[in-house]
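The instructor's notes for this session suggest beginning with a concrete chain rather than abstract definitions. Hand out the sequence below and ask the class to guess, before any prediction is shown, which regions might be ordered.
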Amino acid sequence: MMLASQVFSYVNNTLYHLLHQWAKHRHPNKNKWWRLNKYWHEKDCKPWVFTTNDYALINLRRIKIVRHPKLKISKNPFLDKKYFYLRKIKLHTTVAS
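After discussion, reveal the predicted structure:
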């Protein structure tokens, strides 16, 4: 079982390699550093961000991973309404922050 951080890292690395191949295909007569300087820039103090004039690609490693509390299997939504109400409030506060 892969953790979310491992999946984000794998997708990030794969995307970097695919974008690098695309840039190499688009500019076959230019060297690696020229392509890197053309498409990867520093943005908001973050180096090596793939950017265009209007858009920037997000780095998946910077996404905060939120673990949700497991549901207590012994609880019944019809009998334990207070538990589910408090759980719902707790989940909404973690998503909002």
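Then share the key points. The first helix runs from residue 4 to 26. Strands lie at 40-43, 46-50.
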